[in-house]
Design brief:
Elements: H1 3-13, H2 22-29, H3 37-43, H4 48-51, H5 55-71, E1 76-81, H6 105-123, E2 126-134, H7 141-150, E3 156-162, H8 173-184, E4 188-193, H9 199-207, E5 213-216, H10 224-233, E6 236-239, H11 241-246, H12 258-264, E7 268-271, H13 283-294, H14 298-310, H15 316-329, E8 332-335, E9 338-341, H16 347-352, E10 362-363
Parallel strand pairs: 1-2, 1-10, 2-3, 3-4, 4-5, 5-6, 6-7
Antiparallel strand pairs: 8-9
Helix pairs in contact: 5-6, 7-8, 14-15
Bound molecules: 2-acetamido-2-deoxy-beta-D-glucopyranose (2 copies).
One 2-acetamido-2-deoxy-beta-D-glucopyranose (NAG) binds next to helix 14.
Enzyme class: hydrolase
Organism: Oncorhynchus kisutch (Coho salmon)
Cofactor: Zn(2+)
Length: about 375
């Protein structure tokens, strides 16, 4: 979400904001120092009331998102958001103190799909979406899986569960039911787990919700039995370096980040951005952080990007094409499944070659 867009839309709709210049508004929205997840979630309240319920704004944000990612060199992205948090009817309670209106979660998904599709055409990259259930709103979850089913052929590739991890699914069966339905209907599944919550949340995500990928997953390392099991299963971890520091999920010293262990253990993981507005970040910043403080090399970036592509929620054929596109871009040729390096590119040219991958943990709201 661009600050400029928030200001524009607020002006058009006559909605008051805590600030009226790009600089001031950015200062209010951005977290600079390690904070808490609660503080981070509080930032949404500064601007979500401007966007929610507004058709033009929602479509515009989806379109601009694709533009921004294309400019970061991304060729395929999975973006996630909660349709309910952008609606103002057919949602209980109506979020952000909005008056009841006529924009339903269903139409929100339709508008986001339109914005993404127009962005794809204009910027020649591929964008798919993942719809989020919210931990504190189990009554929305069945709706979310129905929307995943309805728009499965139309841009939506998976279901996610986001929010406060202290709310487990044992106590809130709405999420479990939605995930069972997702599994039954072949809807891909990811779950935010082990970000600030304990390893037990990861265990529940994998065993009860049948997650195919784990959002963040850092605290898995605190249960070595579980970690070994997930390594063996090749479970995919969606890692967001900058976010994990600023939400207080990980030690503020990047040299102690759990992804260093994931790398050493050759785990299945991707590097992603998370809420670029609030963390004032982009994919380059996440990659350069991994390079500067965590000892990531070009070889590792390539390996993890190919892994990311192979872990995407695209249909098999499209997934293969994406993986092959990366092999080609990296000058690697595949021989009977083995790869050889043709002409190694330098890290610098990698960063500018327009070939970085971004998977998921990217939110619109
Ligand atoms: C993709 O993942 C499958 C396992 O699901 C594995 O067999 C295959 O080798 C992987 N391909 C690449 C290119 O990493
Ligand atoms: C990594 O995880 C993804 C997502 O579940 C999966 O599709 C992929 O096959 C895994 N990679 C390997 C090498 O098993």
């Amino acid at each position: 979400l661009r600050v400029e867009t928030i200001l524009d839309v607020a002006k058009r709709r006559g909605i008051p904001l805590p600030a009226y210049t790009v600089e001031d508004m950015r200062r209010i929205c951005v977290i600079h120092q390690p904070a808490t997840l609660t503080e981070f979630l509080g930032k949404f309240a500064e601007y979500m009331h401007v966007i929610a319920g507004d058709r033009e704004a929602i479509k515009r944000i989806a379109y601009e998102f694709v533009e921004d990612k294309a400019k970061e060199g991304v060729i395929y992205v999975e973006v996630r958001y909660s349709p309910h948090l952008l609606a103002n009817t057919d949602v209980e309670p109506i979020p952000w103190n909005q008056e009841e209106g006529d924009l339903s979660p269903d139409e929100v998904v339709h508008l986001v799909n339109q914005g993404l599709a127009e962005g794809e055409k204009a910027y020649k990259i591929k964008a798919r979406s993942i719809l989020c259930c919210m931990r504190h709103m189990p009554s929305w979850s069945m709706d979310v899986v129905e929307l995943c089913k309805k728009y499965k052929k139309n841009g939506v590739v998976a279901i996610d569960l986001a929010g406060d991890e202290s709310l487990n699914c044992e106590a809130f069966p709405g999420h479990r039911m939605a995930y069972e339905e997702a599994a039954r209907c072949g809807i891909h599944r990811t779950v935010h787990a082990g970000e600030v919550g304990p390893a037990s949340v990861v265990k529940e995500a994998v065993e009860v919700l049948k997650a195919e990928r784990v959002g963040h997953g850092y605290n898995t390392l605190k249960d070595q039995v579980l970690y070994k099991q997930l390594l063996e299963q090749n479970m995919h971890f969606e890692v967001c370096p900058i976010s994990s520091r600023l939400t207080g999920a990980c030690h503020p010293d990047f040299t102690e980040h759990p992804v260093i262990t994931f790398r050493k253990d050759k785990a299945n993981y991707s590097l992603n951005t998370d809420d670029p507005l609030i963390f004032n970040s982009n994919l380059h910043l996440d990659y350069s952080t991994a390079q500067k403080y965590m000892g990531f090399t070009e070889e590792e970036f390539k390996r993890l990007n190919i892994n990311s592509a192979n872990s995407s929620f695209l249909p098999e054929k499209e997934k293969k094409d994406l993986v092959n596109e990366l092999y080609e871009a990296y000058g690697m040729i595949r021989l009977n499944g083995n790869t050889t390096n043709q002409e190694p590119t330098t890290l610098n040219s990698y960063f500018h070659s327009g070939m970085s991958m971004l998977l998921c943990v990217h939110t619109l709201n």
